[in-house]
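Renewal narrative, Specific Aim 1. Our central claim is that a sequence can be written position by position from structural information alone. The example that follows is taken directly from our test logs and has not been curated for this report. It begins with the structure tokens describing the chain, in the order in which they were read.
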């Protein structure tokens, strides 16, 4: 009985991941063009108001990273189009860093979690 329950749990998680992580359902402008690298870790997301002031912080799991953005797994949802600051902790290879990003999409359900796609904002291009 326990083996059958474990099998059903794994099948349910596999289906949930497919539904939440499958990017084929995203509009082309919300898909990343750069190669992704799987990453396991935590980052802090600082939500910003429209005026650019911090309104809250949330710890999330990072699941992949590319030159232009990252994929996150969060217990809370984020509004697509909102601007956030991602705070990356130090690693043996790199010091801590912050990256400003826009939330491209947020899919999932309360209680089961949300897959969040963020597109990094190139601040030097923004200033030009």
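The sequence written for that structure reads:
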């Amino acid at each position: 009985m326990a083996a059958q329950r474990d099998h059903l749990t794994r099948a349910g998680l596999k289906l949930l991941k497919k539904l939440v992580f499958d990017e084929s359902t995203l509009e082309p402008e919300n898909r990343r063009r750069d190669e992704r690298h799987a990453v396991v870790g935590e980052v802090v997301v600082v939500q910003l108001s429209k005026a650019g002031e911090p309104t809250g912080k949330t710890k999330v799991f990072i699941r992949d990273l590319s030159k232009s953005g990252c994929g996150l797994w969060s217990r809370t949802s984020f509004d697509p189009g909102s601007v956030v600051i991602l705070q990356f902790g130090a690693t043996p290879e790199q010091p801590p860093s912050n990256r400003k990003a826009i939330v491209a999409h947020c899919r999932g359900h309360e209680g089961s979690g949300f897959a969040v796609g963020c597109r990094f904002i190139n601040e030097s291009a923004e200033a030009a």
